[in-house]
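Researcher: Please predict.
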Amino acid sequence: MKKKNTKQNITRRDFIKSASLLGGIMFLPSCATQRVKGANERFNVALVGVGGIGGQAINNLSKTNDSEIIAGCDVDDLRAAPRYKMLSETPNYRGVARFKDYRVMLDKMGKDIDGVIVSTADHMHYPISAFAMARGKHVFCQKPLARTIWECKEMRRLANKYGVFTQMGNQGHTSDGWRTIKEWYQAGILGKVEEIYTWTSRPARFWKQGVGTMVRPKKAEKIPDTLDYKLWLGVAPDQPYSSVFIPHDWRGVKDFGCGAIGDMACHFMDVPYSAFDLGFPTAVSAQCDPQDDFTWPYGSTIEFEFDNPCGKNGKIYYHWYDGYRKPKSIRRIDEDFIKKHGDMTVIVCEKETLTVSEYGTRLTVYPRKRMVELKKANVFPEATIERSVSPLNAHLEFVKMAKEGKMPNGNFDYAAPFTEMCLLGLIAMTQNGKKIKYDPTTMSCLGNADATRYVKSLYEYRDGFIS
């Protein structure tokens, strides 16, 4: 495929135009016309969540001289220690201030911090991001953007209110994958979209989830001396400490995480969502394993229906599977292919069928011999959509573009409605078997008061963590 060397440079006109593609209103922050830093100045970063996935930020930002990590915040000294060591061994390291409480960090070092990278458990994404944005800090937040639909909308509102640059950490959005598919569709190679299938092996061997697998602790364990458990809980309701969900398996607990679809849909579903401008589904339904008020189900099958001009007869049907579940059959796809792959997206169009990897980096017309035929026929168009300044490195895209006064592609105006769409799958799980129809303007599930309850948090946030 021929490609032009395209660079991302979102202008005011481009940014406003993209709003219509997402079906919502975007507001260009006032800072988007100004450089945050001079060409030779570094963008000062604070990490909230140094252990675990925080190491990804350290590794990614070590590849540039555009930024410097000047502060780190983690509630667990033991888990953070290897990452601080990793940071100390990066080029240009000049020391880092260490904190356990992000509020103290921003109060003490706010004047020196340009951007905050949030890499915590899902339930603290919104509180920390809101606290930082209210202080004028640019924010990179890991996926999923937030734990509830209301939190997503609020994060988008605050980003526009305070005029800050933002980015969600789904690195696949910085890859060429969804851009290439959009170009192929626009060139008429694929034909109308009929159905999309995504399956993931999560949670499976990755974390505990589901009734009988993730069991509510009956008694409290001793809190490790290195952990500030109250700070880890943050806005969540007080409950006994347990190694059942800390440090890793909180993903399967409803108070803290968003299950398999929350963890993985922001990767897998981003490619079709962005390539075909899916917008909000008109209806969602789910069939899932047993669940209770503590844990998400181990396995689920979710059906999303979209009214979309890219779809055959104006409809696109998206099938999501997690846990041990997979589609039984897909038109044009061999059964062995489905059995072989634990994580995959398949896009069935009128003319061609695509197989797409997690981040959209491996994109193939199926079967492979058909891909070879199309290449020989030289039908694939040149790249027309601007590429990321840092493919597969969302942290670096955030820093580079914010520093130059340009809005990152994965900003909250894109990330909020996209994550809301994913979280509708969680709401559908709570209604196991019932079809829900969601109205984004009223933030309600039509005719279903019980489902609407899940648009917001079922618990009240503990005071002092958001503002």
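Model: The longest strand covers residues 300-307.
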